[in-house]
Amino acid sequence: MTSFEELRTKKSDAFNAWYGNGNGNGSSEVRKKPLVIVCIPAYNEDKAIASVIMKAQGHADLVMVGDDGSSDHTAEIARKMGADVFRNPKNMGKGVTLKMLMDYARELNPSVLVTIDGDGQHDPDEIPRLVEPVLKNEADVVVGSRYVAGAWMDAPRYRRFGLRVINALTRPDAEAGGVKDTQSGFRAYSSRALGVMQWCDSSGFGIEEEQLAKAAQHKLRIVEVPISVRYNGVENPSTKTPVRHGMELVRGALRIIVEERPLLVFGVPGVVLLVAGLIVGVELLLTFNSARYFSVPTALIAVFFVFTGVMLDVAALMLYGISRIGRKIERKGYD
Fold this sequence. Notes:
CATH class of the largest domain: Alpha Beta
Strand content: 5-15%
CATH topology of the largest domain: Spore Coat Polysaccharide Biosynthesis Protein SpsA, Chain A
Number of helices: 11
Order of helices and strands: HEEEHEHEHEHEEHEHHEEHHH
């Protein structure tokens, strides 16, 4: 496993490769080359990881593999293929693995960081298509999309339907400027975007949608480019069942919505309940004043509505304040 000290040595090597003679004739002129790093999160992918690494190496200066506690030979094969391998002691989730890779890669100050899944679904030969907008300073985050013109995938109908449902459920929370493929793991990031991604904390598959949410919050430029995605012939296209995968993504989307829009999620229902409770209470008092009849059940309902409404509004304000403070801390750390 690659140690942090070894990474520092590679940082020096990468720096030397990034800066060199500009004209090759002995001049001291400095020439700056883009440094491209490819990060591959993998879990039990020993059947496909070698091919993914070999193709990625043709388009990158450095390939890093994050082995998420695999029980097969993923790490050994990746190391033999010449990739830098970082291992989790146990299966901790794609989000944890991806964040670990990005943290290590950020130490090398890459011009572009590319993430690609290790199961062979994506074509590493399409890496230049994702890198180009970043190098041209046209984007900070480039999403390899299955749903834009020019994209291709051979997914069966049930999987296409499931993917579209999940994208429809998670797209609103991402606030990602109309990104159609919120779940694609094939992406490219600028050095500026890497500074923002460090604040993501999703441990599982929800990391992709959280990254888009963070990018949107920090006004990063997000674009989509068409890619090809292969499902037929891929031995393990998903490490979880479709239901578990979908529930995890929806749960992550709800968490982001609650964190980013507490006034909408808690504040609005709280106000509605509070107003409803006050209306019921006023009606109860008017009835008692005119008919001298006091309904205990109605009174309990009014008290419940008012109490619940107040608690929801208090929670909304507290979460909103915490969210604002968190964003300020993020911006300060990012700047």
